[in-house]
Specification:
about 210 residues; mainly alpha; elongated; monooxygenase; 10 helices; about 5% strand
């Protein structure tokens, strides 16, 4: 049985469906039989320069956000797949508080080889019970108990950064990492290691490299 006529009919129906959805959502209106969608806008600019394609994708998103400043969202079509970008806080609140919009997109599967099936990339039935376990760690009363430690380590970080202001350039990755290490070790493990105070690199960081 030849499936090409049926496949062509389904593809045509999908073109019309995408055209209809494109008219409803804020964003660039794709052509009826355009296979690339908004990808053509991206490739037409990126091929003229040597920058990363990802950089131009971010610039494209920022451009659409400026084109529709009063809208709560906009849509970019990557081939046949719509990507919805939310730009207003009240719209984000609606999504985060929804009990239906809880299943993650299939795009998160690309992160599984790197992150595994953790809270970030796992499906709903896995991440929901794990999040319930972690919720107690972010209660206001629990965080308030560790506020003195956060203030102490942050003030020491500010002091270290002030000493760098006389230089033309300085790397802040190391002092911020040491501050984070001090906070984590005292709040979670209850151990004072003094990573920021030590002039030498802590043994923990050296062993982790």
């Amino acid at each position: 049985m030849d499936l090409s006529p049926r496949g062509g009919l389904l593809l045509t129906r999908y073109f019309f469906w995408r055209r209809k959805i494109s008219q409803l959502l804020p964003g660039s209106k794709v052509r009826l039989f355009s296979v690339l969608g908004n990808v053509r806008d991206l490739t037409s600019v990126a091929t003229k320069n040597n920058r990363l394609l990802f950089v131009y994708f971010l610039q494209l998103c920022l451009a659409y956000a400026k084109m529709f400043p009063k809208e709560k969202l906009f849509c970019i079509w990557m081939f046949f797949h719509p990507l919805i970008f939310i730009t207003k806080a009240d719209a984000i609140e609606e999504v985060l508080s929804s009990t239906k919009l809880i299943e993650k997109s299939y795009l998160y599967r690309w992160l599984e080889p790197i992150l595994g099936t953790g809270i970030l990339s796992s499906p709903f039935y896995i991440w929901k019970p794990r999040r319930k376990i972690l919720n107690n760690c972010f209660r206001y009363e629990f965080l308030k108990e560790h506020l003195p430690i956060l203030n102490e380590k942050s003030q020491f970080l500010v002091k270290c950064l002030k000493e760098e202001t006389c230089k033309d350039f300085t790397k802040i990755v190391k002092p911020i990492s040491l501050c984070a290490l001090d906070i984590i070790s005292e709040t979670i493990l209850g151990i004072h290691i003094g990573a920021q105070e030590s002039k030498k690199e802590p043994e923990f960081i050296h062993s982790a490299k």
